[in-house]
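Q: For a teaching session next week I want to show students how multiple molecules come together into a single three-dimensional assembly. I've collected the sequence lines for a complex. Could you give me the predicted structure tokens for the whole thing so I can convert them for display?
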Amino acid sequence: MSAASRSDLGVKLAGRAEYGVDAELPGMLWAALVPSPVAHGRLRRVDLGPARALPGVVAVGADDLATLLPRGAGDAERPIFPAGEVAYRHQPLAAVAAPTLAEARRAAAVVRVEVEPGPALIDLETAFPDWPGPDGARSPHVIAHVHARHGDVEGAFRTAEHVVEETYRTSSVHQVALEPHACVATVRGDRWTVRTTTQSPFGVREDLSLLLGVPESSVVVEGTWVGGGFGGKGASLLEPYALLLARAAGRPVRLALDYREEFELGRTTLPAVIRVATAVRDRRIVGRRVRLLLDVGASLPGRDFATGYSIGFLLGPYVTPTFEVEGYGIRTNKPPFGPHRAPFAPQCAFVAESHIEEVARVVGVDPVRFRAEHLWREGATTPLGQPVGPFGLAAALERADALARRWRSEAPAGHGVGVGLGFWSTSTGAGGEARLVLSATELRVEQGERGIGSGSVLRGLVAVAERALGLPADRIRIEYLSTAEAPFDSGVYGSRTVGALGRAIVEASDAVRADLAGRMAVAVADVSLAVEGEEIVVHAPGVRRTVRSLLRPDEASRGIVATGRHFAKPNAIDERRVVTGSFYPYTDFTGAAHVAEVSVDRETGAVRVERYAAFQDVGVAVDPATARAQVEGGIAMGLGIALTEEALWSADGRLLNPHLLDYRIPTLGEVPVPEVTFVEGFLGAGPFGAKGLGEPPIIPVPAAVAAAVRDASGAHVTELPLSAERVARTLKLL
Amino acid sequence: MEGPHAPRAVPGFELVAPASVEEAIAALRAADDGGATAIAGGTDLLLDLDDGRLAPRRVVSLRRLPWRTLDWLDGALTVGATLPLRSLEDDREVRRRLPGLWQAVHAVGSVALRHRATLGGNLGRSAPASDLIPMLLALDAEVDLVGPRGERRVPVDDFVRASRRTALLPGELIRSVRVPEPRPSAYLWQRVRPANDISQIAVAVAFSPGRRHWSIAVAGMPPRPALLPDVARDLGDGAPSDAALTAAAARASRAVPITGDQRASEEYRRRLVGTLLTRAVRAVPFEGGRPL
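A: Of course. Below is the structure for the complete assembly, covering every listed component.
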């Protein structure tokens, strides 16, 4: 990929790109939040008087919602400010704005908050010192309960030759986007406008409509450049507070988190405890059991997505004739659980893969062979009864195994090589629409969301349009519009940008072609586009017309407009297998086999990743350089989950390491340049058969590293991250 | 009930950059108690400002003082307080004659940080997990101070007291650090992440060829990095036997006043002390009982 082919590089390198943290408006005020001082308690009083007594300060709290919002309280289930229970430390109890940031922060500090502290549930295991019994789902701590089963699982376990039972624990990890959450809000009349750093302008619009109790048509979201999202910027976070303050002040209000607040308030992956059991007969898996306790933080009942969704990833991409799975979403006094690049799936794959490796060793079969013998292939059925579509994981595993064998033969003493698998499905979200505008000299893609740094918009979507219309990248421009003007799309998340919005672009491109063919009275299949000098020219047998000459007078200033839509309905799961709760249906099947070579210090337990390779099922790599970058980034991020990243909480709900010194993401020195191989030809639901690639590369990483650590040292570590101390304990050095 | 982290904004301050030592001392003195603070590379001061631990009215920059120096004289090394660590690291003689010091400097933060950070600043911060202080202890280094009442020389062991606490008097500045002689030496550490992290445990060892004795220092526990003279004696007057080394490592592991925290448990830290000490002593090259 040449530098010129990414249209954002110019403004970004020149420092002119406006990120959310850069956004300012004339006459705006600066805002600060008033955080809860306790993790759990009953709110007695929030006295904004001392703040309001300061010059130029505007303050809003729960009591002001009735006057500021057209329908009073907004969303009764999700009040913007709590009026009764305080559910987590740093939960915003009020917000203030002032002419400068320093004044706003001083004003926030003088707000008098009275909370009667109550017992906080922080460590999810204390909710159920023993595993939940038959009445577990009725516990007040449980806000989500999912349960599914199929076949005679009791019989399978009773008659098994081997039963392997294990318990795993995983930790809380943070997205660590370089740019914290930030926005600037303006309210004029009944128009609530917010300029914000977001992965999903339309998602934020919907959220704000519900939270503020105003129609979506009254809310306008303008997306800024996004300094990394990784799932953390998919929903609204600061926008409601900024809008309320802007309404109260009658001026624009800017609200941004500093990095410490970003750690304390951000919604992300929280800890889990997982029990897995596998029954084997004649070297075949005959039954599986999975039980999950997932910390969902202060999530509200009915708003948990993670518990049911996680179960499939805990079972892994393996055929099992019988199974029983049960998951509990445990409400704790932490910020609500939120998405982090392939939410919780890397942790699930770590469990699934480490466990299947253990099972293979107990049974006495080569772990890779054991996996290959049980792996889903096209035509197989998932445990929840979905038919498996084109799936490159078996091909990826075969190649990964060959490389792992070679690396193992070359590895010096103290090194080990491991293979880990992960699977995923391209999310369709709520669907989306693409709008193309073909002018005399360029093709514009009009949309609401900007790239979030990955290149999926600025290279991925451009490459789709290039391929669909045969125009060069330098004639394709993405124009960012607010939600008032852009076509609806669900947003840049769920690995869906190329996979879902790309499909809409292909459909819109087909519409452009059809339109041109109609104007030229030729067959659609005969139409091709080219650039000649400044002009875009349409060719058909015996005809050559410039686009300029085809434009109607009313189109001269804009161009030919065409739209395309996309919504892929997932295959239904077999509801007969569901006892209760909702599970996650897959739209397509993608994944990867990764190979890690590590060295393990046998005296300290320290792990170093020496070499890394990925065999990634991509369907079709629409833009290979960007696809490679996605894989490299996923691996780097996955190595953090595997080895060093872990948010730590005190017993009273304080985040102990809300800063980048003690919350450790990998640096370049810890990330070897990976070998990346695309496994192509197993086509997905995206354009030209592409599959989503934003999330899949992170999923197998902790599993591959854990397998390599075990190969190198014998340490079968059942807890993430694989810190040196954990490895040392597993090796019985302590 | 401890309140949440208060929302912050760094308050303003006056920045001065005196051209002479006298002016610098005067500038520090002129702002009364705690009102002024010195800045060299700023890598610690910026964190203190951001976290609200310090809110000085005046910051006295030392950048114009002629202290970015590195001199060898009669075998002794003198490092000016404001010399960036990266310059110390790039000096071939340091690497050859004081390998442990080079390793300790190389262990600090990251390359970018070492271009800013200084030896004087590191001593002034006096962090329990400092990479440089344990090595300076093992090298019997001394600190040259200059202040309103003149100059004085203090052993590092007397200068460092606890985190952010040193023997510096009001208005006094660290001018340079003196390492008396080249010593075969080694510095080893263990961290969660190799770069941009601080050590769970670090061990500095040095052998004085003239006095034929070992010095051992450990960092990573409160209140400060410490010398372990009993452990050093266990190692004898040359290359230790395996038995002597094992005994020394066991004693060190037992005797060091370590606690556990979120970076490592006490148990793990004790294990690291023994392991790193053994490896560090073995890393010091000897041949026929004499250091190479």
